[in-house]
Design goal:
A hairpin with a 2-residue loop joins strand 1 and strand 2. The protein is built from four helices and five strands, in the order E-E-H-E-H-E-H-E-H. Helices cover 38% and strands 32% of the residues. The protein starts with a strand and ends with a helix. By secondary structure, it is of the alpha/beta class. Helix 1 packs parallel to helix 2. This is Anti-sigma factor antagonist.
């Protein structure tokens, strides 16, 4: 088991949340607290960078949707970046990839946001 750590960076297009370790029932509240405290201004994109994600269960997927709701409530949006293949498969099966945009990495997500895509 890899403990979860969450780091937040400010980018011109909005906050970038880097998720490292296991996002599961025991750690989802850490992620939710980090995201819930972020300001996502209208038009901004909250990027959830999963390059360091080692495991994600249904609690993690629910936390991604909560992050999307948080961003949308303030007029922003949210996207996932660098989603590991095993997680991408699950996101596709349950349809989350039709709600949250998925990008190959955080840089591409920021570029898309700056173009208004």
């Amino acid at each position: 088991m890899n403990s979860l750590s969450v780091a937040v960076e400010d980018a011109p297009t909005g906050p970038v949340v880097q998720v490292m370790g296991d996002l599961d029932y025991d750690s989802a509240d850490v992620f939710r607290a980090a995201v819930g405290g972020l300001a996502v201004p209208p038009g901004a994109l909250l990027v959830i960078d999963l390059a360091g994600l080692t495991f994600c269960d249904s609690s993690g997927i629910t936390a991604f949707l909560a992050a999307w709701n948080h961003a949308r409530a303030s007029g922003g949006d949210a996207a996932l970046a660098a989603v590991p293949p095993s997680t991408a498969r699950i996101l596709h099966i349950v349809g989350v990839d039709r709600i949250l945009q998925v990008y190959p990495d955080a840089t591409v997500a920021a570029q898309a946001a700056s173009r208004g895509a």
